[in-house]
């Protein structure tokens, strides 16, 4: 029972107990381990890491488990945990050009140096439910068989050092070069958003932003609400090294690899009286395999640059305040769900007011007791 | 609309100009915008800016009305205390203050100049409330007075402008601007989009208000008939440049520049 | 992936769960305190701050929690209310959070508390010097309903362009004959900034004026902090001929008989049965205990409300 007057303490305890039981489900089924989630629900884990802003597959998998598979709840758990982490060092910018590529495609050229690498993708699967998976425990031999039929062997699947597609255009001057506006990007997690935001800050917000929201906005630009004629210049996914430069050492050391997905869009060209026409860019990046998110992000990034190119801004995806203020699902989820909290004091105030107004309406037969004015006294204004 | 109008008596130019414009330039691209515009506007004077669409009229009006910073040039305003103010050197809050007290802007589309979701009375009262009026009944009285002055039925005071006709919306927009007795009013095609009989009524109303309140006005229009009826002086623009300026009758009856000649013959000739 | 990798550094006495005192790390608290100092120095001005994700959802008091976490010390006594009551679910949840992360004493008595975190009410018992009232704020911007753009509203505050606030009040009177804003009623602080007092009923507005207590406001999702220092003018916007007035009831509290407190309406059955009881549960109980006030309602009904 939802108790507002008295007994809140007890009610919360009971709700927590019930939640724990529901989360576990039927105990005749084996409990899901965090490792199983991490290994077998990788795309869920990757989304939670990206929007949760923490690269840690184990914690993300734990969050998915604890949240009963509700990814927004899992993202929230990871974000709250992030608040408590001390900041030990700031890494150097990662170089996605040096990525150990597992997947890399370009839609703008038939072939590119380094080749098109399809990698693991659902793209060309036929979306037919595979009833073999329904059978208890998929046949391990099947998977092993698929692995062994692949050439080359699993360890060599990835391709090192593919030159970036957009850099080839850049060397010809056909596309704007991507230069950071300032050397020291802002930090959205330490400083509140300030409008207008610079591009680095916008990209941070988009990277943490809700995949569904960005996807819908990106789609709207394709349907004409802020159209910017995109081509998927390059999408790459793989591992990059993370480096820090400890003050006491003075040189960079490698502290590990993280998996990233990056999308570089090539967009409509612009020129002006003092600039030759060039293609423009949209950029997307996220943790793990998050191709849909990275593409949507790149489209929205480009549409948010409308002011920079003096484009008309009349669509939602071009409105920086609209997009950035509403893209974070921890914020939006919290505020929408807070309507569940008691609001009876405010409601009481409205109730009293409404009763009073209705009473007056019945007494006066009108809504506007104050609107009765003597028009005869009003004609002097203009001439005075 | 094409009936010859009686020209308004021109205020003697002995008084100091209320607005002095020197070499004002705002260009988006070559010949897009306005280039090197200079003129003086005296108290009680109405200046018409004419030219075809894309000639830079609206850009010039925005720049003149402190809403679009120029690339270069000077905009000097003489306030009611006879102090000369360099408008674009003022801090932004002083400019915004000017725009809601001493100055008025009448937009071509009433929805740009009105709050469509609040009543006519609140629309008229807003500028008064912004400068500190805090008496509801007095605000209401002035609202009613102004509705009468712009020939809107006083019963409509609590109705939203979205329920008004185009002509009424435009008159309400004028009332909303004039309620603080501004000295300088900028109008962008105030009769655009209205049908001819409605235009005539609005022009007549405007002409009387301008005379009664001794307003200085800059009015942008592509309609030479409107220009002839309202303005003392005319400025003809083409591709961002002023090609000719002078007394309205002089320009319309004896145009010197080939473009003006073309404009006048194409509009006024039967 | 070792478990000890996820342990925390704590600069003060560690709380039972291994988190820092009041959850936030000391650097974050310092950032918050700087924002609070600025807020106190410019009453009613919304100070942007680097809000953090808290383990409670946005919209559920994260701003208030961060403010409380920044000002609370181990010898403070905390009271948490929601809708005026100490035992509403959200109040319980937030109080537990601070008990867990700070170990401070808590109280339901308004006069015993040094820090009171509230949602939607100001206690009926007058506050005194040295007390801090922390408000949870959902939307800090009083101009938001007129102007959705943050860039524009900040400019309007800076230039004191507040005419539109009265447009709203004018419309209320024109259409209803009254100012029809019942809660989150806008105020002007110290004669300068127009401020949203958070969604408290306008009944509570007069309590803010010249209050001896320090009033702090935290909006977590919107990342804004603002403040009303002790003994500051807080004026509710109105017209000269339509002055601000507060709600009044035809009823008394059915439990303690109070006639001057904010009353909640409790629906007792589906036959139109109603009880009116103080929204401030501590105030109501204190009156019953101290004065032995006879309940006006039947004992059975009172029991129902209290159980």
List the helices and strands and how they pair.
The complex is a heterotrimer of chains A (384), B (270) and C (307).
Chain A: H1 8-24, H2 34-40, H3 42-52, H4 57-66, H5 71-83, E1 100-105, H6 140-149, E2 159-160, H7 165-171, H8 199-208, H9 211-222, E3 231-244, E4 253-272, E5 275-287, H10 291-303, H11 320-326, H12 329-337, H13 344-364
Antiparallel strand pairs in A: 1-2, 1-3, 3-4, 4-5
Chain B: E1 19-29, E2 32-41, E3 46-50, H1 57-64, E4 72-78, E5 84-86, H2 92-100, E6 103-106, H3 110-113, H4 120-130, H5 136-149, H6 166-178, E7 184-188, H7 196-212, E8 216-220, H8 224-230, E9 233-238, E10 241-247, H9 248-253, H10 258-268
Helix pairs in contact in B: 4-5, 4-6
Chain C: H1 26-41, E1 47-48, H2 62-71, E2 77-82, H3 89-102, E3 105-106, E4 115-119, E5 132-136, H4 150-158, H5 163-176, E6 187-189, E7 193-195, H6 205-208, E8 214-219, E9 224-228, E10 234-236, E11 263-267, E12 274-278, H7 281-291, H8 299-306
Parallel strand pairs in C: 2-3, 2-4, 4-5, 5-8
Antiparallel strand pairs in C: 1-9, 6-7, 6-10, 8-9, 11-12
Structure notes:
The complex is a heterotrimer of chains A (384), B (270) and C (307). Chain A has helices at 8-24, 34-40, 42-52, 57-66, 71-83, 140-149, 165-171, 199-208, 211-222, 291-303, 320-326, 329-337, 344-364, and strands at 100-105, 159-160, 231-244, 253-272, 275-287. In chain A, helix 4 crosses helix 5. In chain A, a hairpin with a 2-residue loop joins strand 4 and strand 5. Chain A has 13 helices and 5 strands. With 270 residues, chain B is an alpha/beta fold. In chain B, helix 4 (120-130) packs across helix 5 and helix 4 runs parallel beside helix 6. Chain B is globular. Chain C is 28% helix and 16% strand. Chain C is built from 8 helices and 12 strands. Chain C has helices at 26-41, 62-71, 89-102, 150-158, 163-176, 205-208, 281-291, 299-306; strands at 47-48, 77-82, 105-106, 115-119, 132-136, 187-189, 193-195, 214-219, 224-228, 234-236, 263-267, 274-278. Chain C starts with 25 loop residues before the first helix and ends with a helix. Classes of the chains: A alpha+beta (384), B alpha/beta (270), C alpha/beta (307). The interface between A and C is large, with 58 and 73 residues.
């Amino acid at each position: 029972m939802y108790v507002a007057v008295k007994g809140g303490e007890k009610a919360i305890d009971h709700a927590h107990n019930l939640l724990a039981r529901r989360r576990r489900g039927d105990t005749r089924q084996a409990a899901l381990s965090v490792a199983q989630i991490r290994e077998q629900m990788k795309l869920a884990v990757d989304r939670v890491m990206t929007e949760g802003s923490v690269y840690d597959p184990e914690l993300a998998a734990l969050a998915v488990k604890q949240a009963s598979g509700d990814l927004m709840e899992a993202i929230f758990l990871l974000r709250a945990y992030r608040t408590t982490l001390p900041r030990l060092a700031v890494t150097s910018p990662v170089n996605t050009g040096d990525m150990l590529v597992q997947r890399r495609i370009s839609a703008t050229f038939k072939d590119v140096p380094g080749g098109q690498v399809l990698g693991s993708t659902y793209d060309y699967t036929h979306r037919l439910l595979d009833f073999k998976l329904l059978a208890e425990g998929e046949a391990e031999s099947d998977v092993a068989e698929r692995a062994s039929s692949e050439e080359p062997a699993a360890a060599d699947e990835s391709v090192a050092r593919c030159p970036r597609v957009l850099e080839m255009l850049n060397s010809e001057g056909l596309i704007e070069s991507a230069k950071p506006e300032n050397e020291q990007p802002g930090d959205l997690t330490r400083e509140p958003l300030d409008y207008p935001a610079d591009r680095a800050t916008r990209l941070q917000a988009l990277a943490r932003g809700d995949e569904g929201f960005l996807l819908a906005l990106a789609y709207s630009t394709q349907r004409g609400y802020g159209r910017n004629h995109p081509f998927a210049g390059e999408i790459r996914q793989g591992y990059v090294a993370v480096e820090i430069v400890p003050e006491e050492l003075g040189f960079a050391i490698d502290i590990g690899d993280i998996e990233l997905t990056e999308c570089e869009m090539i967009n409509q060209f612009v020129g002006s009286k003092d600039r030759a026409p060039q293609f423009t860019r949209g950029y997307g990046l996220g943790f793990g395999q998050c191709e849909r998110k990275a593409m949507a992000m790149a489209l929205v990034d480009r549409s948010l640059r409308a002011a920079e190119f003096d484009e008309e801004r009349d669509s939602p995806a071009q409105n920086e305040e609209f997009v950035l203020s509403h893209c974070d699902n921890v914020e939006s989820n919290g505020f929408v769900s807070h309507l569940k909290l008691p609001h009876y004091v405010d409601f009481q105030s409205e109730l009293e007011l409404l009763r009073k107004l209705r009473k007056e309406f019945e007494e006066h037969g009108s809504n506007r007791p104050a609107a009765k004015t003597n028009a005869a006294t009003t004609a002097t204004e203009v001439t005075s | 609309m094409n009936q010859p109008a009686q020209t308004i008596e021109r205020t003697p130019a002995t008084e100091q100009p209320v607005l002095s414009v020197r070499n004002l330039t705002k260009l988006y691209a070559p010949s897009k915008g306005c280039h090197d515009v200079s003129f003086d506007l005296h108290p009680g004077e109405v200046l018409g800016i004419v030219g075809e669409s894309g000639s830079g009229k609206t850009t010039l009006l925005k720049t003149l009305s402190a809403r679009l910073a120029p690339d270069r040039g000077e905009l000097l305003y003489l306030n009611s205390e006879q102090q000369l103010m360099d408008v674009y050197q003022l801090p932004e809050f002083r400019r915004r203050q000017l725009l809601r007290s001493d100055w008025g802007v009448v937009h071509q589309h009433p929805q740009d100049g009105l709050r469509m979701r609040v009543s006519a009375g609140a629309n008229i009262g807003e500028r008064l409330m912004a400068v500190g009026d805090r008496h509801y009944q007095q605000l209401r009285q002035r609202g009613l007075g102004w509705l009468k002055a712009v020939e809107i039925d006083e019963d409509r005071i609590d109705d939203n402008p979205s329920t008004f006709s185009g002509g009424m919306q435009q008159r309400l927009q004028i009332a909303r601007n004039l309620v603080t007795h501004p000295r300088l009013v900028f109008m962008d095609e105030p009769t655009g989009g209205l049908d001819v009989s409605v235009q005539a009524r609005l022009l007549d109303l405007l002409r009387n208000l301008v005379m009664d309140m001794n307003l200085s006005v800059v009015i942008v229009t592509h309609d030479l008939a409107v220009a002839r009826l309202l303005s003392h002086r005319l400025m003809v623009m083409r591709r961002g440049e002023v090609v000719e300026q002078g007394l309205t009758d002089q320009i319309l009856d004896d145009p010197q520049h080939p473009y003006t000649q073309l404009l006048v013959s194409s509009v006024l000739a039967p | 992936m070792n478990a000890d990798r996820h342990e925390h550094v704590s600069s003060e006495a560690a709380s039972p769960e291994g988190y820092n005192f009041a959850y936030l790390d000391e650097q974050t608290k310092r950032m918050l305190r700087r924002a609070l100092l600025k807020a106190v120095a410019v009453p009613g001005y919304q100070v942007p701050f680097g809000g953090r994700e808290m383990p409670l959802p946005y919209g559920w008091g994260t701003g208030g929690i961060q403010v409380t976490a920044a000002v609370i010390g181990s010898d403070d006594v905390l009271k948490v209310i929601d809708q005026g009551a100490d035992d509403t679910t959200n109040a319980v949840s937030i109080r537990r959070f601070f008990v867990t992360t700070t170990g401070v004493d808590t109280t339901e008595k308004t006069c015993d508390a040094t820090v009171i975190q509230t949602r939607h009410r100001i206690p009926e018992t007058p506050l005194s010097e040295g007390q801090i009232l922390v408000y949870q704020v959902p939307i800090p911007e009083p101009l938001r309903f007129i102007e959705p753009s943050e860039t524009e509203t900040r400019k309007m505050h800076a230039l004191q362009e507040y005419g539109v606030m009265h447009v709203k009040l004018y419309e209320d009177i024109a259409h209803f004959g009254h100012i029809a804003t019942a809660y989150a009623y806008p105020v002007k602080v110290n004669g300068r900034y127009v401020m949203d007092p958070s969604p408290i009923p306008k009944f509570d507005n007069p309590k803010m004026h010249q209050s001896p207590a320090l009033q702090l406001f935290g909006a977590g999702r919107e990342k804004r902090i603002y403040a009303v220092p002790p003994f500051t003018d807080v004026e509710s916007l109105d017209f000269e001929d339509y002055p601000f007035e507060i709600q009044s009831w035809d009823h008394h509290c059915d439990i303690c008989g109070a006639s001057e407190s904010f009353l909640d309406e409790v629906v007792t059955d589906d036959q139109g049965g109603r009880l009116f009881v103080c929204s401030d549960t501590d105030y109501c109980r204190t009156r019953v205990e101290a004065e032995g006030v006879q309940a006006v309602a039947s004992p059975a009904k009172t029991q129902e409300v209290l159980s």
